Amino acid sequence: MAKTSPTEFVKQVQTEARKIVWPSSRETIMTGVMVMIMTTLLGVFFLGVDSIFDFIVNSLLRLAQ
Predict the structure, then answer these.
(1) pTM of the shown model
(2) Which residue range forms the structural domain that includes residue 43?
(3) How does pLDDT run across 4-63, given as a tens digit for each residue?
(4) Greatest Cα pair distance in the chain
(5) What SS3 state is found at 24?
(6) Cα gap 15→3, rounded to integer Å
(7) Transmembrane stretches, by residue range (predicted)?
């Protein structure tokens, strides 16, 4: 593998950085809203699953007494 000089490396980095396409503000907001919705739904789902398991474990413990 050929070694790259520091100046050539910086030029390559700048060339690659020009290729970056940043999302628009609308895309960023929509993505943020979708993340909040999905984390809320997952939180509610896992709360439900945890409540069911809590009920089952507590029922089994009451039977064992």
Answers:
(1) 0.66
(2) 23-64
(3) 899 999 999 999 999 999 999 999 999 999 999 999 999 999 999 999 999 999 999 999
(4) 76
(5) coil
(6) 18
(7) 29-53
